[in-house]
Amino acid sequence: QVQLVESGGGLVQAGGSLRLSCASSGGTIKTYPMAWFRQAPGKERVLVAAIARYSGLTHYSDSVKGRFAISRDSAKDTVLLQMNSLKPDDTAIYYCAAYTMTGVHFSRAPYDVWGQGTQVTVSS
Q1: How far apart are CA 57 and CA 66, in angstroms?
Q2: CB atoms within 10 A of CB 73
């Protein structure tokens, strides 16, 4: 069973950048659609970015489009989230997730394996 571990969170000033990484133990994530979600205090967890299983197609929420980029590092079997031009509204716990089943488009799939999350705090 795939287990996901996020890293790379931290405190950054508005306008700065961070790169989150998601690695797997227990199996490869190369064959799964992968996504990053975030949950801000008092709010629901929402999809930020997703990447398709094999094609490399990506999907972003409107709030991060043009600032964030999701990618795979196949050699390291990790999924990255490059976050640029960060804003205080980006402050949240960021979760990596995998969709280990099939049948639903990666941009709206019911992701079923989750990491523990990593805190991102953007100061104004």
Answers
A1: 15
A2: 11
The Cα 50–Cα 88 span in angstroms is 22
As a whole number of angstroms, the distance between CA 47 and CA 66 comes to 15
Q: Which two tokens stand for residue 16?
A: 């700065």
Nearest to 18 by CA among 98, 78, 76, 94: 94
Cα 76 from Cα 120, distance rounded (Å) = 23
In 2-41 the beta strands, taken as DSSP E runs, fall at 3-7, 10-13, 18-25, 34-39
Per-residue pLDDT tens digits of the chain, which is 124 residues long? 899 999 999 999 999 999 999 999 888 999 999 999 999 999 999 999 999 998 889 999 999 999 999 999 999 999 999 999 999 999 999 999 999 999 999 999 999 999 999 999 999 9
SS3 25: strand
Please give the single-letter amino acid code of residue 85: S
Angle made by CA atoms 70, 79, 19, in degrees to the nearest 5? 65
